[in-house]
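Q: What does the assembly look like in three dimensions?
Context provided by user:
Components: two
Sequences:
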Amino acid sequence: MTEGSPRVSLKGYGVSTGVVVGPAHLYTSSRQSMKPLRWNDGTGQQAKAPGPEAEKERLRRAVKLAVQETESLRQQSLVVAGEEEAAIFDAHLLILTDPQLQARIADRLDKGEEAEQAVLEVTEDFARQLETLPESALAQRAADVRDGGGRLLAALGGQPLPAPGEIPEGSIVVAADLAPSQTVRLDPTRVAGIVTAVGGPTSHTAIFARAMGLPAVVGVGQRLLQVGMGDTILLNGDDGEVILHPGPDEIDGVGRRAREARQRNHKRAIPHETRTRDGHRVEVAANIGHPREAEPALKAGAEGIGLLRSESLYLGRAAAPTEEEQYQAYRAVAEIFGGRPVIIRTVDLGGDKSVPYLSFSPEENPFLGWRGLRVCLESPHLFLAHLRAILRAGVCGDLRIMLPMVASPDEVSQAREILKEAKTSLEDEGYPFAPDLPVGVMIETPAAAILADRLAPHSDFFSLGTNDLTQYTLAVDRTNRRVAPSFRPEHPAVLRLIGSTIAAAHQADRWVGVCGEMAGELALLPLLVGLGVDELSVSVPLVERVKERVRGLEAERCRVLADQATACDSAEEVLRLVRHFESAGRK
Amino acid sequence: MREIETQVTYPSGLHARPAALFVTAAMRFQSVITVYHEGRVADAKSILSVLALGAGPGVRVTITAEGPDEEEAVHELAALLSPAPGAPVPGNSREARR
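A: Here is the predicted structure of the complete assembly.
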């Protein structure tokens, strides 16, 4: 119906910047996805009545599954949008286990109802009750209740999360409203923009869209929903205009603007090398959680990607991402950064990040458990697809592989074996790939730091994961409020490990970066520069500030400071030295 | 039984995130905790029932607790609903940063 359909201009809130045009992809709202799966299927057949106890057991299992999925969504939104947005899923977890909800469902099960119907009706009751409240912000919570109810229903059907469905690349997602669990699972490599009939500037859709860098307009009104699947739609996230069936001139205009923007980017793209005042080179790169952040990182002046956390592709979904999907994602980052280095950390699952398609079981000490490279080495199928995707994307830029949670050289050799296997299989199948991607080790266990000289022959580079290195070295869990104040990367024990790692690496002619949060702590940068780091990789908003700070330092003075600091007794003493260094530098 | 009346000073009322913090805090107490607002009654350990109070910003609510830790319960929960002026509001730091 695209041909000859009248042009319609609608107005909403532009909540995430950018202008895009593309085919509409109509997205099922959470309400529609709440159809019971077994009940009321139109066949008129009476469902089997397995009895209240069996139904209750089924419900218990479904709640457990839904809770796991929600935790995984929480983790994924943490990576994509940050702590505050992830907190919405805390509310979802409470809804799933709500005592009132559970009691009312149990009542119905006792009366012989099927679990699906009980869940549907009880959650719908609660949702309607919330909708009648005058407070609009509170009434919006009805969507959260339906979102939770939908997840429970899907879990009862043995289906993990309702599959988001294949979205054609470049589509504009059109929906009445999007639940947080739907937004966070949109694949930003396929979606070009988001437009919803309801919602306001503070809606979750708005916040997630901004975090993912997707142009978005919300609160357009119900007329939006007259658009057909595949109809051309233009959305302007800057001024909130949405045009259904735009004219050819308008469509060309968007394409032209996008091309111009790309050219502008390219011109200013080559960031200046960062050097200290006395000419010592320190590369400043960015840490990113999602391929979407590559463009903003480049604009922020990053000289490369020092850490691409590949977890964002793995979390919050029922099955592992395919090789093809990963290839597209890594390739996009490689292309954006052209010839500059992009370090992909191989998927770091476990610890606080579990996924339903690997057999994670509860652990006493998840941070000392099955995580990082350990998971990959025992899941060769998953690891192989992962490495194949990286190798293939390596043709399009300067990609490098980094292995997390290594404790001994043997693990690196095992990973290299699987990498060799990946290359052989790609060769056999005739795929082009980069045969000599550098393989580095993330130094985050004290074991790896202590054995740095033994690891160096197996590694092309090191990057210090100072968060875990600090936690493991000082035996301090920084999420434990009681001991968190003792979590100090400037502790002399940590500094000595960093120093000896760098010395061993330089001895073997390997470079060393820092990708932990310590690299972004401006006060501690003189210590890192003095210890001899070659690269600092920090979150995108910090790139410019770190570059500026490095340019103001004198490497020679930093070396003296680092020597003194490693001879200190405590983190406090180190901080005193750092403060003195600052004030002396200002004189 | 202990009872305390307080004003909700969260900028967005007992919205999803603040409500989640409130319910999580309530669950740490053994006492039976109830919240009253304009004739509506909520179980403080049930987020659905707390949300259904419709307690927007600025309204007054009454919290009661009955059990071994009733004293701490009412005080801690009341303090959570109306943080001291100038203190960071949990779950709202983004707004606070603007």
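Follow-up: Residues 30-46 of chain A have pLDDT under 50 and may be disordered.
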